SsuA/THI5-like domain-containing protein
Amino acid sequence: MTVEDGDGDGGRGRKGGRREAARGRALHRRSSKLQQLERLVEQQPQQQQEGAEEKEEEEEEEEEEEQQRSGGLAAGGEANDDDHQRGEAVVDCGLWTLDMSARTADDMDIMDILVARHKQREHAQQTRCLCLLPALSFANAALKIASALSVIEWTPEQIAKESFYNGSVTIVNGGIPNLFSDTTVDLASNAETQALRNYASHKNLRIIYTISEVAYRIVADRNKVPAASYLKGKRIGCIQATSSGYFVEKYMESVGAKRGEYTTVGGNTCSQEPCGSGTFPAMLKAGHVDAVGFWEPGVELSARAIGSGNAVFYQDFAVYREIYSLHSTTEKLHDPAKRREIVSFVRALDKALLLFRDEPEKVYARAANAVNIQEELMRAVWPVHEWPGTIPADLPDLLAAEDVYVARVDNRSAMSAATLKGLIDKSIIDEVRGNGFE
């Protein structure tokens, strides 16, 4: 009897020990599961969803096995259908949603705890996310620029993009017309001729920053054109209705040759030797033209085509210089987020132009690579380029004079000086220099 009583007490003790052990294991799993789920909330959205689902499935299987071994005595008891229906614990910060659907009473207890904790932090989380969203939007925004990728003048944009601009920027081949044909284009670079041409029909166009000023040159064989006055009556290669055509007209006026007292001949550009038939260097060498007035490196290559020793150059910075600028539209400039990007890119351009002006050795090769020419050729034409990073004080007067030419070739009336003042917007430069409202 004593033995029986002893055996009975011992059996009950052993069973109680097993129940306590099972309950302890379940509580340990419950605590671990809560910690794991809370860590998942802090992880990336995809990791949260995948990890939570995987872990939940594994632990449900373990739970069922343990309940079977312990006779269903795991902590938590039976599920109450009224209190523990399937549900969701959702952490929604505008960036992700975590679904923790419960299937057991233990799951639901854990979920309830987690939900309660997150409800306490919900307002703070949402406020924090709302504050971060503008920054995230700005960081992910992409600036798009259309530039004439075959000309040297655009190359500071590439250096600014590669070395100084912290945002995302795409530079595509094109120019000012892209601002009006493609609404995703924010900036465009071209010479002043194209600015005038497009401003005539798009009064929302703005010149915001001058990247380069270039003293164009006319090259000829010194044996045929020993002085500038000998250009009268000659055939001069250029492209009409562009800065090349305007330069030739202005320069010829400066040496006393009126329109009709010389002939302009169109041709194709060349940026790398050998230059094929129909390009200005080949035309000068073949005698199809007597001189070439163009942007670089076409003029330098034309000189080499006839032999550098035979070439003579004519230029006058005071008569004509190309004003190669960055442009945008009033709509882009009035958009606060876009304006911040534009200001940041102009700041980057400022830093790039410092290298172009003061440390060109650092950019010769990179600039040459951007336009696919030899570094030696880039060095040869560098001296005719200036890199101001501003808006010239005499730009309004220059635009008024040049629009007479552009209007004539475009068969329209010239714009007034008052109208042309609206083409220039110095506010971005003022903001970059610290004189604006930033």
Notes: The chain is about 50% helix and 15% strand.
